[in-house]
Here is the input.
Amino acid sequence: MKPVTTIRSRTVALPTRDIDTDQIIAARFLTTTSKEGLGKRAFFDLRYHKDGSRNEDFVLNRPEAEGCRILVAGNNFGCGSSREHAPWALLDYGFEAVISTEIADIFCSNSLKNGLVAIVVDETTHGWLLENPGAEVTIDVASTTITLPDGELIDFAMDGFARHCLLEGIDQLGFLEMHLDRIEEFEKGRAWKP
Here is the structure.
């Protein structure tokens, strides 16, 4: 995982409420443990009609969505079953962050562990972002702020450990490996052995 410090991008707005993990990546595509190629399947049933043709009305299929790395989603994004493939698919699609007023806890945790910045903002900020798709914003993970086009700074909350891991470009295992010498020292010195 690469360090995530700053994300500067135009936004794309998907205002639909209650987008669940099956809509992000349908269960029928969960036949792999590889992260590569899942982006082609992200939002598949929304991006394509049943006959396989592109749904030109879907926001991600519009030209203005091209290259946007920040997804502004409707309330309760990522609800449903826990599947790590959902943030994998979004990352492989090209998103680096998702912003909403409510993000499902398990989805948020899975996202942060995999380098997808999941941000909860207030309703006013969320409403402005939904009404202004394509706005160029900057997310600063270190300061936990979003800078809007007019320079206004919006603070957001993020778990300190998740923030540390994003900034360092490590996951939980990587964090433990950074402290391997201390773990081994503890193991040598303890009286009880498994």
